[in-house]
Design goal:
The protein has 13 helices and 17 strands. The chain is α/β, with parallel strands linked by helices. The protein binds N-(iminomethyl)-L-glutamic acid (NIG) and fe (iii) ion (FE). Its EC number is 3.5.2.7.
Length: 385
């Protein structure tokens, strides 16, 4: 791959040492990797290609560490009813499970492709992808196989809800998930996740499933505290989960546990937006020293968006994050939540995932909500849009 010099960058966010920002900057990429970043007058010569940023801002590609892209159908009517006052419940997941089971592999892959491309157009260069709308051994395996065509970050979420055919037999379903379903799915996934919530899986079930996953070589992440306080965060920290996600409802003990752990708090404000619920308090977490990520939670029920700048704008407007904190959470925060030290920053050695904004400053990402400011996107040094 030809080497590339991006010159004339007004503001370059590297997320490197110091404040992680260089003005009047340049970036050099070779073989898909960042080899140099700094003030433009120090840039080495000799790159085969050159791009002029024209004084605009360059930021790391967004790392969306929480998405549910493998599904069929949508739930627009459910959203419309919710906006007229019907509350959100996890029960809607079963509607999507029925549609997903009825879809062909090609339909599922086509849907993931459409969403992955939509995300890339908005600057996402890495996206995690969960199963969880199949909920049979066969449908979970094919969900993960489909996901694997688009990302290395596949997550087995057989424990999303108890499917209708197991109604009243939750413990039998848990045995299926931690037994044959896990056995069949583990080769296609890196992560294991459980929706730990009233109406989904309780603490004991969550722990049993995650421990079985760990024994199979998967690393845990947990849906915790989305609809109410619960044991999910404590279990996530105890089991060394990479991330506890949603974390809208937290006790002080949960915040302390996160602060003294390696577990990232992944905030998903698209879900609060689309369910008209109170937002998580990012400030409380940041002030306690917790590592925070922002992700889309893209799914057809609670958050049907792939747009990371929108999530950043919500973080700033609704969750007391500074624009700078929101950008870090959407880049290096997501990379930490996926345990990917090669992503989320633009210092030498990083994968060359970066976005040229149609704006002079990254503050514009939150300052100009809904405006498509993502002008050009590179993934591993290759322009993808
Ligand atoms: O993260 N919380 C569980 N899963 C999704 C919602 C899925 C759905 O409503 O279809 C979430 O919000
Ligand atoms: Fe989710």
């Amino acid at each position: 791959m030809a080497s590339l010099l991006v010159d004339g960058i007004g503001v370059l966010v590297t997320n490197g040492p110091g404040d992680g920002v260089v003005t009047d900057a340049a970036l050099v990429v070779d073989d898909g990797v960042v080899v140099w970043a700094g003030e433009r007058r120090g840039a080495p010569d000799g790159a085969e290609e050159r791009v002029d940023a024209g004084g605009r801002a360059v930021v790391p590609g967004f790392v969306d560490s929480h998405a549910h892209l493998v599904f069929a159908g949508d739930r627009a009517e459910e959203f419309a009813a919710r906006m007229q006052g019907r509350p959100y419940s996890a029960g809607g997941i079963r509607t999507t499970v029925a549609a997903t089971r009825a879809a062909s592999d090609d339909e599922l892959a086509g849907n993931v492709r459409r969403l992955a491309e939509e995300a890339a157009r908005a600057g996402t260069t890495t996206i995690e992808c969960k199963s969880g709308y199949g909920l049979t051994v066969e449908d979970e395996v094919r969900s993960l196989r489909v996901a694997r065509g688009f990302t290395e970050e596949g997550t087995f979420l057989g424990a999303h809800v108890v499917p209708p055919e197991y109604a009243g037999r939750a413990d039998e379903y848990v045995d299926l998930v931690r037994g044959p379903m896990l056995e069949a799915c583990a080769p296609y996934a890196r992560w294991i996740d459980v929706f730990c919530e009233r109406g989904a899986f309780d603490g004991e079930q969550t722990r049993a499933i995650l421990e079985a996953g760990i024994a199979k070589g998967l690393v845990p992440r947990v849906h915790a505290g989305q609809l109410g306080e619960g044991p999910g965060v404590r279990i996530a920290v105890e089991l060394g989960a990479a991330s506890a996600d949603h974390v809208t409802h937290l006790t002080d003990a949960d915040v302390d546990a996160l602060a003294s752990s390696e577990t990232v708090a992944t905030l998903l404000p698209g879900a609060e937006f689309s369910t008209r619920s109170p937002y998580p308090d990012a400030r409380r977490l940041l002030d306690a020293g917790v590592t925070v990520a922002l992700a889309s939670d893209c799914n057809p029920g609670s958050s049907y968006t792939t747009n990371m700048p929108f999530c950043m704008a919500l973080g700033v407007r609704e969750m007391r994050m500074t624009p700078d904190e929101a950008l870090r959470a959407a880049t290096v925060g997501g990379a930490r939540a996926l345990r990917r030290p090669d992503l989320g920053h633009l210092t030498p050695g990083a994968r060359a995932d970066f976005v040229l904004l149609d704006a002079p400053s990254p503050i514009h990402l939150a300052y100009r909500p809904g405006v498509p400011l993502v002008s050009r996107v590179w993934q591993a040094g290759r322009e993808v849009r």
